[in-house]
Structures are given as C-alpha cells and as structure tokens.
Amino acid sequence: MPGLDVGSPHVSQLYVLTQRHPSWAKLVDDAGWPDADGGAADVRDYESLLGLVVNGREFSFRLRANPVWRTRNPQTPTDSQTSALTGSRARGVRVAALSAESQLQWLVERTREDHAVWGFSVEGEDSHPRAQVVARNQERFRRRPGDAPVTIRSATYEGLLTVVDADRMRESLVSGVGGGKAYGCGLLTLAPGRR
Q: What is the dihedral sign for C-alpha 2, 81, 98, 121?
C-alpha cells in the first residue's frame, strides 16, 4: 500500500507497506535511478510497531485519506450516479466530503469509541476531536487515454488517537483505512503519543 508524503514543493517521501521485502527495480526503471541524492530505500520491519498497539495506548498520527460518504440522495448527481441509483445498487453512490469541516466530521464519525471501525478513536475526554485537517488536495487524471477522468479528493489529518480495539487497529495499520488506497490514500503513520 503506497502513501505519498509531500513535505514541500521539492521534497516528497514515498511510504510503501508490503507483506514481503519490496523490490524497487520497476520504480527505478520507470521513474528514476537508485540512490539519487541519497534517496536509498529504508526498509524496516513493522512487527515492532504492531507489538506496541494495545488498548488504551495513545499515538500521534498522520493520515492521508479520501473522505467520501455513501448516499442514495446526492444533491447534484452526475449522469453515472443517476444511472447507479436507478439500478438495484443498495449501497448508494459515493460523494466527496468537500469542506475541511465535513472532512473532519468524516474522520470523527468513523472513529467514535462506540463505533471505531478502524480500532482507534480521535475523541478527547470532552468529545472534541484531537485531530485536525492539515492539508486538502484534489487530483484529476485519466487512468488510460480515452478513459473518463478520475477525481480524488484527499485530506491529510494529524492529531492524537487512542487505541480502542487493538486487533482492528493492527489490521488498519497493515491494510490501510478508507477508500482511495490505490491512489496513495489510507496509510496511517504513528509516532509516540504527545499532548
């Protein structure tokens, strides 16, 4: 699972989570050269981090996600959404959370302690989120020439989380969270918790 962390206009870091030791040969062939500007791959074992994930533990986190809602009643449905809604599609269609406020609400709803779908909560003792949207982005591209354009809206979150279901949290760390994983979204990174 890839995740791109753009720190400045001139420096980007690519994080890749894999089940096996990765090979960078294809990436080097397609996009660059090995060890350019000291950019050798730093490969680390994930097991030590997974062992630290226990209920009640706090971590600082960073997450780039694709916050989307499912609805059967979009405000201004596209032609493809209208087509999908007239069929037997029970789950509705995806619509992007557009404002920073709705993007934060998307994260909070999925991490409430009583409904923590990813095994962690970002709610503080006063029920206020201990997270914020620190960056927002929209990318529009075509997978192949002639294909319909794909639009991915992402939000980058930073804050403090509490592990509420360690097994589910470990699965989230390994598999990613939310949609858009094929487009660099969903990678959750952790650091020691600090207030």
A: negative
Query: Please, what's the b/e burial string for 97-134 (b: 16 or more CB within 10 A of its CB; e: otherwise)?
Result: beeeeebbebbbebbeeeebebbbbbbeeeeebbbebe
DSSP 3-state helix, strand, coil percentages of the chain (rounded to 5)?
25, 35, 40
| Residue whose tokens read 């720190």 | 7
CA-CA distance, 113 to 122, in Å (whole number)?
Answer: 8
Helices of type H across the chain? 25-31, 47-52, 79-86, 100-111, 166-175
pTM over 0.85: no
Q: Check: CB of residue 122 under 8 Å from CB of residue 159.
A: yes
In CATH, what class is 2-18+43-68+98-192? alpha beta
Tens of pLDDT along the chain (195 residues) come to 555 555 556 566 667 777 677 777 776 677 666 666 655 667 777 788 889 999 999 999 999 998 876 766 666 666 666 666 676 655 676 667 778 898 998 899 889 877 789 999 999 878 789 999 999 988 888 888 988 888 888 899 999 999 999 999 999 999 998 888 888 889 899 998 765
| Domain map (residue ranges) of the chain | 2-18+43-68+98-192
Instruction: Tell which residue, 20, 4, 56, 29, has the closest CA to residue 174.
Output: 20
